[in-house]
Amino acid sequence: MGQSPYSTTSEIFATGGEGYLKEDHTPSTLPERREEILKLRRSLKPAARGVGAENAFLSGKAGQGKTAAAKAELAELQAFATAEDLELTTVLFSCEGISSSYTLACGLCEELGGTNPNGHPMQKVLDHLWEAMNQVGGTIIIVLDEIDNLGTDDKILYSLPRARDKNYVNDDVYPSVIGISNDLQWRDNLDPAAKDSLYDDSIFFAPYDANDLRDILSRRASKAFRDTDLVYENPDGETFTISVDLDGDDESLDTAFEARGIDRGACTLRGIDSGVLSEDVIPLCAAYAAQDKGSARQAIKYLRKAAAIAESEDSPTVLGDHVRAAQDEAERELIIEGMEQLTTQGHLALAAVTILELANETDVRTRDVYDVYKSLTNDIDADQLAQRRMRDHLIELDMLSIIRARKSASGSVGGEAYTFELRVEPSTALDVLEAVSRFDDVDFNTMTQNWLRE
Ligand SMILES: Nc1ncnc2c1ncn2[C@@H]1O[C@H](COP(=O)(O)OP(=O)(O)OP(=O)(O)O)[C@@H](O)[C@H]1O
């Protein structure tokens, strides 16, 4: 057998370390969210005393650690409840794909009681839900992640937090809700009654800055990569390194600090000392992510990708160039995702420009795009927009970085003339378009050939 391109070990990643750069890894501490977690703790404290927690609402853009903070703090509370023998149940429920109070109520019944009453009238479903809560008993904290998926169908957000006040559930049941949302406007549009009952405490997660992201990445890197230690400074200004023992029973940083008898809270993270990551890698990943959305998810993704690229090149170290390549690749993926999610009219406008480019036409004018667009709308039997409205779609594609729209000098009086070109490879756009089911019967090659003949 020839030598396989696969290997069970890596020169870059620590054994078992790659998991720390994966989406599903939940950190047990989030020092950058200390303030937010303290606020959440304040809302949860009554639960530790056997009465219900306050309702809370965590908001902020994607990748800001809202879900991670809620999970970490609830794990802390759950550990306390177990030790104190308190009746406490926490449910983390993702509302992804759930757009009505009805579906949410059914999902919660299933989560709490094991059966899904889908098909029954709403009142019956709610009765099921209250019964499931009675069976569980005690303090019940329901975390509704991506709660904005509910849109305006928010009735359940009124009744769920009030189930006890309204006597829907027994006296020994204390339900509360923690809502999590990336959509900052959604809450403002809620029915005032739901808004009132849901949000005792509102906690905003501001975007991470480059320093926060550097710290987050450093901690992840110390676990994910070989030969990578954290460098801390103590209150006396002395620096020291901490390495995490992945083979130990508890590989948390707290344990590593405890083992050395040092108070972690009094020390400041200064960076990493690594034999496999060049010095600029983490600052670059942090800077790219901070410039964009300040998302920890994005920063971690850059680091993961950069390391994977270094590995695939058999490089023993991850370099700044690998981060640049990772950022390019991630940006391309985002653009491809943007192309996949276009509406039919967006796809038609993109298809028209793509066909023209495949026929070697560059910097095409609106009129030419419109000719191909018309022929495409006939082919797939779609609504045909007026030229000006189709042009609006082209300009929208420019805003999504899919094509480039340039105002040209030859604009007629009263109107602006544009030329358009793809910002992605025509073959990439073609791959996306050919996967759109609406275009199943369109033969892009023949259309290109026809245009070439004309
Ligand atoms: N302070 C932090 N320390 C370590 N990891 C973090 C921190 N903040 C976020 N992360 C990580 O970043 C990723 C995204 O975080 P999380 O899912 O909590 O974001 P979110 O604010 O809930 O946004 P979304 O709705 O997009 O999930 C997760 O992998 C999480 O573990």
Automatic annotation (TrEMBL):
Record field: compositional bias (Basic and acidic residues): 20-32
Q: Does the keyword Nucleotide-binding apply?
A: yes
Q: Which UniProt keywords apply?
A: ATP-binding, DNA replication, Nucleotide-binding
Q: What positions does the entry give for ATP binding?
A: 208, 220
SMART domains referenced in this protein's UniProt entry, alphabetically: Cdc6_C
Q: Alphabetically, which GO biological process terms does the record hold?
A: DNA replication
Q: Which CDD domains match?
A: Cdc6_C (cd08768)
Query: Which intervals of the chain are annotated as region Disordered?
Result: 1-32
Biased-composition ranges, Polar residues, are 1-12
Gene3D superfamilies assigned = 1.10.8.60, P-loop containing nucleotide triphosphate hydrolases, Winged helix-like DNA-binding domain superfamily/Winged helix DNA-binding domain
> What is a GO molecular function of this protein?
ATP binding
- Which residues are in the Cdc6 C-terminal domain? 350-433
Family (UniProt): Belongs to the CDC6/cdc18 family.
Q: Which NCBIfam families match?
A: orc1/cdc6 family replication initiation protein
Function of the protein: Involved in regulation of DNA replication.
| Name of the protein in its database record | ORC1-type DNA replication protein
According to its UniProt entry, this protein's organism is Halobaculum marinum
